Fold this sequence. Notes:
By secondary structure, the chain is α/β, with parallel strands linked by helices. The chain has 14 helices and 20 strands. The protein has 2 domains: about 5-30 and about 270-415, 2-enoyl-CoA Hydratase, Chain A, domain 1 (Alpha-Beta Complex); about 35-265, Rossmann fold, CATH 3.40.50.11440. It is about 30% helix and about 25% strand. α10 crosses α12.
Amino acid sequence: MPEYRVPYGKSYLTFALPDSLHVEWLAPAPVPPVPAATRAVNDALAAPLDFDWGKFAHARSAAIAINDKTRPVPLHLLLPPLLARLAQLGLADDAITLLIATGTHTPMPREEFGAVVPADILARYRVVSHDCDDAANLVFVGTTTRGTRVWANRDFMQADLRIAIGDIEPHQFMGFSGGVKSAAIGLTARETITHNHAMMLDPRAYQGRYDDNPVRQDVEEIGAMMRVDFALNPVIGETKQIVGVFAGHPVAVMRAGISLALKVYRVRVSGEFDLMIVSSGGHPKDINLYQGQKGLGHAIPVVKKGGTVILAAACPEGSGSKLYEEFMRGMTSHQQVLERFQREPFRLGYHKAWQIARDATKARLLLVTEMPRELTTRLLLTRCDTLDDALAVALRDLPRDARVGIMPVGNVTVPVLTGER
């Protein structure tokens, strides 16, 4: 029987499937990495898109939004060239602040900063973790045309030059990450993020969709109101190496980067699947279920109604959301979750319960995870100890002409049925 391997936590899971099955491998395209990553970053900084460094020749301070530990952004490759460019503008080390853009995630404690910021940079520059609930460090900058009241990080807003770093990849309802998002979501208030994310219920809020996606376009407006001047965004390939890097005005960066991101991450398939085996992509994309769920969200559009999804997500940090767990207290069915969600005001954390219930009412969900069985039971999830255990359940019920898909990097893969855009 053919053997396959998918990422799981910081390792891999290996499994075999019968020869008789029609199996399709849905993975990012093998786009080769740039020959020299540091040179590629320097080249992008030297010729930025729709941006003139000269306009900031007299800047006295800069703030840089960087992702937290849940995002695999190669800051060790991106930050040194960027900081060298800022030094050329005349900015001293103590005039530059790095802001860990946590959004509504728990603020990172200082002892964890080394997990995202290289040690030499951590020693030289001021690094602060954002707190979306710290009202004293939030300033009101206005309301978007979609009604989002924007409260933004004070340190970021006080800087003369405002920069966002993050990668460009598909996002299950934002359409794409990248551009202003690290600042416009990562450095704003819970109220701001909640109102923006509530638009995820709009059918246009969909993976790989940008121009008419209300969530993403609201983010673009938030970023403009926060005056995010500059974005530095790589596209990361299948091997977690940089396959392209873009720098300049955030909108220009998105326009240039999306085409490459789709070339890497969009996979065309000829039909829906009876069984989908999906890995969230390993660490840190499966650090908790809050992140790992995105693999399920990307897979479900090409799974047959009543089919089966095996989600492999280690989730060493559990659910990743106390509000998600709170919402699930007393729930006895996924349908009940959907009904309760419709009755209550939108809240971040609650939306994760809705996303999983939405998908679990379309297909049977089997979860291979390190999460304790007691927790998965409370979350109405069917936990399997091993991938082989999950396959034993799934294969038993497959029709003779079954189609089986494998998504090794589900959190960023965008499967599209042939004939769809």
